[in-house]
Amino acid sequence: MGEFHTGNPVFVTYVVAAALTVLKVMGQGWMTVYRMMRAGGGYAAPEDLRPGLINRAPDPSQLAVNDYVERSRRMHRNDLENIPAFWAAGLLFVAVSPPLWLAQGLMYGFVAARAAHAVAYATAQSHEVRATFYTIGSLIVVAMAVYALVAVF
Amino acid sequence: MGEFHTGNPVFVTYVVAAALTVLKVMGQGWMTVYRMMRAGGGYAAPEDLRPGLINRAPDPSQLAVNDYVERSRRMHRNDLENIPAFWAAGLLFVAVSPPLWLAQGLMYGFVAARAAHAVAYATAQSHEVRATFYTIGSLIVVAMAVYALVAVF
Amino acid sequence: MGEFHTGNPVFVTYVVAAALTVLKVMGQGWMTVYRMMRAGGGYAAPEDLRPGLINRAPDPSQLAVNDYVERSRRMHRNDLENIPAFWAAGLLFVAVSPPLWLAQGLMYGFVAARAAHAVAYATAQSHEVRATFYTIGSLIVVAMAVYALVAVF
Fold it and tell me: Does A54 reach chain B within 8 Å, measured CB to CB?
């Protein structure tokens, strides 16, 4: 019998952690939208200079890189480099029936590390702070993938 | 018993929607390849200037940003910011046994919204048009993640 | 009954291939970190110019694009355009019970193609070499998605 059902507390842990990180990734897109609207710039495509509801006073400088907007895009990129791998590794990890305490420690630890990384990045903390939370999240994903690999051999 | 089997119509809905969006993402890579070949430029790496089957008449300008090619890369990036989260959220959503009509509405709605977004982006429609389809797709992913979270609490 | 359990050799094939590619994606992040440290440049954010353990002698040129570092970021981006789609398509493929030999051929073929792509990219082989391995990986993902679609219709 499989492990992927809501009667399995390890799977429920995965559902919670994966859903929270889905919301984080989608929210990052909205942070970029919010910052583009507020800055009135940092737009991505030439056609965004057409006048309309989003852009009432177009100006070519709106296509220039805007660091306020670009920071959100960098955060998004960092998410995409880590969070989908968490979704995959977490599912593999659940499949090999780890102990609940380990699943909760790793999965909620990942959620906390990525939340802390986002705060550190958004508030422009020193590289060391951001790197620390990145490292914790990354090592958790690696640990889950290795655990699954070892378990099936 | 789990929900992830082809005897469950909600899971079959997920298989169809996820497979179509996998094809969308992979196809976007091929659109970039096609545009690079047709434009003879917009290449990504310095070594792409070596003469060969792909590039018979190399020229340093081929490494410059080419908007025809770059548009496909921006579409790809937008896909990567939305579609993997759909794969994850959709799976969590299936796990908590939603009604079939809701699963079909949200999942096929997501496929339609992303297809419309791609057409709007490829044909350089106004920002408002692209933003509308982006918003629909994004809210569907958020809704599935929130539904799964609420269901396990 | 579902197919997603470790008693199913096709699912075990997926666990192995998905775990290896998770490690590839996470490892690519560490290759970027290693190259940033070794080059002392190619940093992503303005705050990375603050003096600290990572950066003992800050200089504005450290924010310029550094091809040694950027190559690793391009490899990472190429991974993100292919590997998460593999995780999704592979899961759909397992769900429709393909023969074991086909699952092993496609999934281990994908892992081998992406490993070869990474070596070709890291060592700056000609575009044709990189494109060949990209194509193999991409067609495998497409094949798995189409197989799953056809199977549920």
Answer: yes
CA dihedral of B68, B72, B75, B80, whole degrees rounded to 10: -150
Q: Mark yes or no for CB contact B127/A2 under 8 Å.
A: no
> Cβ contacts (< 8 Å) between B50 and chain C: which residues?
126-127
Q: Which of C72, B141, C47, C64 is nearest to A81 (CA)?
A: C72
**B93 class by beta-carbon count within 10 Å (0-12 exposed, 13-18 middle, 19+ buried):** buried
Amino acid at residue number B83: I
- Window C:58-87, CB contacts with A under 8 Å: 76, 80, 84, 87
Task: Match domain A9-37+66-152 to its CATH number in 1.20.120.550, 3.90.1150.10, 3.30.450.20, 1.10.1660.10.
Answer: 1.20.120.550
Q: How confident is the model at residue B54 (pLDDT cuts 50, 70, 90)?
A: confident
Q: How many CA atoms lie within 13 A of B24 on its CB side?
A: 27
Distance CA C34, CA C27 (A): 10
Chains in contact with C, counting 3 or more C-beta pairs less than 8 Å apart as contact: A, B
- Sequence spans of domains, chain C: 9-37+66-152
- Based on the number of CB atoms within 10 Å of its own CB, is A50 exposed (0-12), middle (13-18) or buried (19 or more)? middle
Per-residue confidence (pLDDT) for residue C1, from 0 to 100: 57
Cross-chain Cβ contact B151/A6 below 8 Å: yes
Q: What is the pTM of this model?
A: 0.96
Dump pLDDT digits (tens) for B15-44.
999 999 999 999 999 999 999 999 999 998
